[in-house]
Amino acid sequence: MRIAVTGSIATDHLMTFPGRFADQLVADQLHTVSLSFLVDNLDVRRGGVGANIAFGMGQLGTSPILVGAAGFDFDEYRAWLDRHGVDTASVRISETLHTARFVCTTDADHNQIGSFYTGAMSEARLIELKTVADRVGGLDLVLIGADDPEAMLRHTEECRSRAIPFAADFSQQIARMNGDEIRILLEGATYLFSNEYEKGLIESKTGWTDEEILTKVGHRVTTLGAQGVRIERVGEAPIVVGCPDEERKADPTGVGDAFRAGFLSGLAWGVSLERAAQVGCMLATLVIETVGTQEYQLRRGHFMERFTKAYGDEAAAEVQKHLV
């Protein structure tokens, strides 16, 4: 099963200031702020929802096709993804712009000052999925993740016009989208991904009820945080899957991306929706135990030991044969 993952490709540049921002701000001079903070450390992490999901799928051996736009500074990041089983040949490289970048400084009180540079991400709208499909011999599913909004709309319309099954996954972009845009992006999706809060926001912005949305998509997949995930289909009982026990909670960033990577890998293997959701929850648990969205290691023996403990021998037997 050939799955393309569209979505943002970015790096996070995270710095720590040992003092307090509040101590540096003069109340009657806020209209003319000019400050520079001497920081203690710089942590550069690979990210972007498209790259995060593709990385997780690559770790599981399902050879995802990453579709997105990056800058002329992408060589090292590309090599990292290539080494971890991601097909990056369909990533568009900008000739003039840097890869999207989030730059953030956190002070001793955990206040943050940050900026997001979209950079090359704006060129994702220029990517045609037909070119991607022709290169790999056709696409069986396209995940349309958070990206340049025009790119998300273009990829959705192209999937519909070319009869390519797609999964709608608005993620961070849902806050800036209006009801009309959301209706366009979800109508006819084979899968609709969201968390519980985003689920309510989708219903509020579109004016459609939960039942109405369910009739417009094949499957509604709602992540429930520590409670796991719920999968709904018209006329069938919901499938609810819980999460494995966590060994520690280090950083929740990227947990949703990891779930999608595991779930999509399960679909690629041809296992049941329940098994796919269990793989997604297991991978998400590994990510929450690690600082960084792509810093976890998938050791297959360890993965299957914990998977078996959480979901039982029968579930493990079905999944293990795919983890070569």
**Percentage of residues in DSSP E strands:** 15-25%
Radius of gyration: 20 Å
What strand line-up does the widest sheet have?
4-1-9-10-11-12-13-14
| Poorly predicted parts | none
Helix content, binned percent = 25-40%
Structural class: alpha/beta
Elements, N to C (H/E):
EEEHEEHEEEHEHEHEHHEEEHHHH
Outline = globular
User: Average pLDDT value?
Assistant: 93
Largest sheet: 8 strands, mixed
Instruction: Compute the number of strand runs.
Output: 14
Question: First CA to last CA: what distance?
Answer: 17 Å
SS field, number of helical segments: 11
Brief account:
With 324 residues, the chain is of the alpha/beta class. The chain has helices at 49-59, 75-83, 129-136, 149-161, 179-186, 196-206, 210-216, 255-269, 273-288, 300-311, 313-320, and strands at residues 3-6, 10-16, 41-47, 65-67, 69-70, 92-93, 100-106, 112-117, 141-144, 166-168, 191-195, 219-223, 229-233, 236-241.
